[in-house]
């Protein structure tokens, strides 16, 4: 299976640790590519709608090659830290730009990893989960998993062996 991971964090901390644990489990049987929005040149969606009449976004940046990778994947893993009770701007930018090829994202296998600085029962995780639930319903996604983790220090999640083992297990059992 071809898995595309969209890393919504620009930092090398807890979200990356979660991604790496997932990859450790998933890499043996799957082809994995990581998209790092903070390293791409992608303009925000202008809502012009021209993409619905052509073969993708009209912006001459990294949008179309990035969306090509996502559309070609069998599974998409969205990974994000919590920023102000929501997903990061980096991840949201990619999701917004997917509009140009939204129908090609139908029926994908999807997973989410959310890492925040509040306990997992906090509203911030629920808000992010609900947003992904709406996208999943609209695009007929097969939501394989939604995992949320609480970590404040930059290396805290990596030290949580139960969480790391859980993410590795999820990757291994796709």
Topology:
Blueprint: E1 2-7, H1 14-26, E2 31-35, H2 63-72, E3 75-83, E4 86-87, H3 89-97, E5 109-116, H4 123-139, E6 142-150, H5 156-159, H6 161-172
Parallel strand pairs: 1-2, 1-3, 3-5, 5-6
Antiparallel strand pairs: 3-4
Helix pairs in contact: 1-6
Features:
6 strands; alpha/beta; 6-stranded mixed sheet; single chain; 174 residues
Instruction: Give me the oligomer status.
Output: single chain
The total strand number stands at 6
Structural class: alpha/beta
What percentage of the residues does DSSP assign to strands (E)? 15-25%
Outline: globular
The ordered string of helix (H) and strand (E) elements is EHEHEEHEHEHH
Which ranges are low-confidence, i.e. pLDDT below 50, for 5 or more consecutive residues? none
Number of helices: 6
Q: What's the overall average pLDDT, rounded?
A: 94
What kind of sheet is the major sheet?
A: 6 strands, mixed
What is the end-to-end distance? Answer: 9 Å
Q: Gyration radius, to the nearest Å? A: 16 Å
Work out the helicity level: 25-40%
Outline the structure in words.
- Keywords: Flavoprotein, FMN.
- InterPro entries: Flavoprotein-like_sf, FMN_Rdtase-like_dom, ISF_SsuE-like.
- There is one protein chain.
- With 174 residues, the chain is of the alpha/beta class.
- It has six helices and six strands.
- It has helices spanning 14-26, 63-72, 89-97, 123-139, 156-159, 161-172, and strands at 2-7, 31-35, 75-83, 86-87, 109-116, 142-150.
- Strands 1, 2, 3, 4, 5 and 6 form a six-stranded mixed β-sheet that branches.
- A hairpin with a 2-residue loop joins strand 3 (75-83) and strand 4 (86-87).
- It is globular and about 50 Å long.
- The model has no long low-confidence stretch (mean pLDDT 94).
